[in-house]
Please model this.
Amino acid sequence: MKIGELKPPKGAKTNRKRIGRGESSGHGKTSGKGHKGQMSRSGINHRSWMEGGQMPLARRLPKKGFNPPKRTIYQIVNVRDLNRFEDGQDIGVETLRECGLITRKLPVKLLGEGELRVSINIKVNSASQSAVEKVEKLGGKVDLIIKKVL
Model:
């Protein structure tokens, strides 16, 4: 076989649809756009979600879930991230911000993922039970900062 004898498999190449080239082409007269209406006109600009008189899909589907309006969003710090500090060090929210563990001004929650190898005293807004156990097991202490709600 020579490179000039190569051919694509049968059915792989098809001619393009030549629209508006007379009745005998099979795509003449209305050129596949049907009769009248917005979609048959030139310069049509319709939104993809518009469905004419039909009830839109977004309104046909049921509402799902619930987002509580007073939900508290926390910044997460895991106990494995606290190994960079020294034994007996007091750590607060400002200390965490200075070392880059948190960035935004949101409440901080301590989670118990990973191993803790240093004894520390930490002040955070919230902490999981496993995180408190891991800190206290090494002789540290977790203080919770309680914000007063007006």
In short: Residues 123 and 143 are 5 Å apart (CA to CA). The beta strands are 75-78, 90-91, 108-111, 121-124, 126-127, 141-144. The first helix runs from residue 57 to 60. The chain is about 15% helix and 15% strand.
